[in-house]
Fold:
Amino acid sequence: MVGQPSLKEWTNCGRFAPTADQGQTALVGSKRWYDVFRSFKVWARFMDPLPDFQDLLDRMTASYRAGDAAACAAMFTLDAQLYSPYAAPAFGREAIEALHHEWTHGGVPDKKLQVLQSGGSNDTAWTLNAYSEDGGKVRGNSLAVWQRGRDRVWRIRICSLNDDQREVNHGPTKS
Structure:
């Protein structure tokens, strides 16, 4: 892999630049220009800002409210994993769609999804989210690992839901 170009390399690309050995002016070769451009292209890819994950969750919320299980599942990678206290784990987009069909049947008009924290770099990111529905009777948190595909679209690769209503086991009690 080509190293990062210096400012001098950027300003000299495709122009006449002095060579170190002759002190004369020589045309910087097209091979070097390609190397610098390729390096910038690779560097820029990794410098892409993370998307506004709340916008992505808003799309999922709209799908839940509409009862559109296929649109919910489209937010996941083909080989995604979904872990939930409400059902057995689902592996793959087809299984996740079947699970969302059960969850969204008839629509979920008051579904809410909110990003609490997020981070990541390159083509992997994570979000900690809050969810609620049924007037707040069903609520909890989810941790989602997002992956940006070759098509540059961010999708959930792994998601784990945690229900706030479950009793917390604080370990053994002393008698």
Observations:
- The chain has five helices and eight strands.
